[in-house]
Amino acid sequence: MKNMTNLALGIVTSIGGFLDVGAIATAALAGAAFGMQMLWVLAIGTLCVMLLTEMAGRLACVSHHSLVDAVRERCGFRYFSLLLIGELLVDLLVLAAEIGGVAVALHLVTGIDYRWFVPIVAFALWVLIWLGTFSIVQNGASLLGLITVAFVVGMWWMGPPWHEAIKALVPSAPSHDSAKYWFIAVGIIGSLFEPFMLNFYASGAIEEKWSLKDIAMNRVTAVLGMGFGAIIAVSIVILSALTLGTHGIQVDSYEQAALMMVQPFGRWGIPLFAASLGIACFGASLQVALNLSYLFSQGFGWNWSENLKPHEDARFALVYTLAIPVGALLVVVLGDPLQITTFSMALNALLAPVIVFPLLILMNDRHYVREYRNHAIGNVLVSAIVVIAFLIAMVAIPLEVLGG
Amino acid sequence: MRVLCASLIVALAAAPAGCSKSSEKVTTEARQAAASWAATLSAAADWWGSGNVSTPYFRSIVTQARTSLQKEEKTALSSAGEAAAAPVKAVASHAETIAGAVERGDRAAAIVAAHAAASEVPADKTPAVAKPQ
User: Fold this and answer.
1) Closest approach of chain B CAs to the CA of A46, in angstroms?
2) Does B7 fall in a domain?
3) Does A269 lie at the interface with B, CB-CB under 8 angstroms?
4) Cα distance from A255 to chain B (closest Cα, Å)?
5) Which CATH number fits domain A2-402: 1.20.1740.10, 2.30.30.60, 3.40.50.150, 3.40.630.30?
6) Nearest CA to A227 among A56, A21, A52, A14?
7) CATH value at residue B59
8) Which of A96, A342, A351, B2 is disulfide-compatible with A330, CB 3.0–4.6 A?
9) Other C-beta atoms lying within 10 Å of the C-beta of residue B13
10) Domain count within chain B
11) Could you list the residue range(s) of the whole structural domain that residue B40 is in?
């Protein structure tokens, strides 16, 4: 019975935790600009993230190592330094995007400039991590994140053309504006396998003391949780296509994206969008801030656990205490939270190989995962998707940034 | 890893050479942005008129439209001249009218101005099922 409860909780938290500012923004952009044409990118990305999440959980179950911890040990300090710098830069940008997302959500319901909310959101974030335990932080935010199911209800209410949606699962070249198409594609992939998520998942497994008996539960959680989460992202693409794209509205700001919920929900549309965006981003910003602490603590061998009191792992607490204000400052300095989001998601795709390939090495190393090694299909599939996403990102990011 | 880093640096360094925007592209983008904001204002004004969106939200979307259109106008003027900026200016002028209507609480005037913007610079609607090439 306890296992079933854990399983249900795992799936529910995965659904809630799947969506963040990146998934919402890139899905809304894709739907408004290209209709349902980009659903195939979501499908491939979801398959990849299911495999990767399962691997990160399996590594923790079998070896009792988190991902960063194992990479540091297996690949050495020089490689870890590269990973640390890359992930630090990208995670700070993602943290800024998530904090910006919460602030924009508050702006949508109050009309007050989002920048006023940034310090308040950052402080609330820090207090929750400082005082909370891992299960409160993870399960609380993710359970609240179930409000994002509103996107599925909205899509259902709009009566989408299902046969066309299914056809869109077949990869296709852009109907127009190739640079924008591939930039959004890279953003979608980046928003699905954000490198912080893999280490956060593995660290969470260790915080919750997963062992060999949890391998099956890890597999089900990864597949069902990520699968249901992807359904919500697909709903956003379809809803955006049916409500924004067909009116000729492109998503250049969150205010425009929010309009997608007005047609199905009337006066509840904007508050529902704001609540979904705010809660999803707050949950994700907790994960990113904690992951930065995990990254440094596990890499340098410091005490680490969200379940310890801050004075018991002072350096762990110091990292998120510094990271949160830096993230908040970036939102204010860089401005335009939507642009920060799309750019940071594309950077995630660039960073992915740096974390994914060591994970694949670990998942094929008997010393770490014994007989629970990867199958060849998983290795090939993940490698191919990550390499292709990386190559597209290399071309699409400069083209989009420089306006080619 | 060194190869990857080197490739990234080369790609980033080479990109600017082939990527400066042509005036034709600037003109197209300016028109698309203007049309998108006109469509946004039109839909949002209708929903404000029927009470489906709140006044603070509508005010913020109008402010956002004015800010974006100002930026777009500046870019279009500097890169492609007066003709490229014309649709942006037209929508921006309607946005000013809408902003005034919001301050007065005049929903009917906001709807009229928003519809005028949308018909002056009509948007290219994306079909839900876009035909791939």
Assistant:
1) 21
2) no
3) yes
4) 6
5) 1.20.1740.10
6) A14
7) 1.20.120
8) A96
9) 10
10) 1
11) 22-120
Q: Is B60–A249 a contact, with Cβ atoms under 8 angstroms apart?
A: no
What residues of A are in contact with residue B35 (Cβ under 8 Å)? Answer: 248
DSSP A310: T
Return the pLDDT at A343: 86
Task: Measure the CA–CA gap between A308 and A130, rounded to whole angstroms.
Answer: 10
Contact criterion met (CB below 8 Å) for A121 and A228: no
Domain boundaries in chain A?
Answer: 2-402
Nearest CB partner across the interface for B15, out of A161, A253, A399: A399
**Cα(A339)–Cα(A351) distance, integer angstroms:** 18
* Cβ–Cβ gap B11/A160 under 8 Å: no
The reply to whether B131 touches chain A by the CB within 8 Å rule is: yes
Task: Give the mean pLDDT of chain B.
Answer: 84
- Predicted confidence at residue A404, as pLDDT, reads 46
Q: State the pTM of this model.
A: 0.90
Least confident of A119-123, B112-116, B119-123: B119-123
First and final C-alpha spacing in chain A = 57
Q: Which residues of chain A have pLDDT under 50?
A: 404
**pLDDT on residue A7:** 66
